[in-house]
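Take a record:
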Amino acid sequence: MSNYPVGIIAKAAGLAPKTVLNWIASGVIPCGGLRLGQGSKIGLTRHDVLTIIVAAELSHLGIGPKSFTPLLVQLAYKVHMMQEYIKGAESNAYFIKAGQEPVPIA
């Protein structure tokens, strides 16, 4: 799993690193259970990076964190479900109908 530095991702998203860290610390951005502490170094996963970029774009469009946080939680869930689907498809262990959750094949 790759880890990306907050500063680089913040710059790419057009945000200050402090903004990204504040969003993570306050729960505005659901980033895989990251815990921030004094002097801590954190690395972001690809999923975290996607979440930050989407949040930045929504912010640049004038949509505030109170409005976009629920959307990000839904996005995180959908990405997780897609990852599970891909894992299952690789092992042929899941069956999916359009609009439904993956169902393990017994």
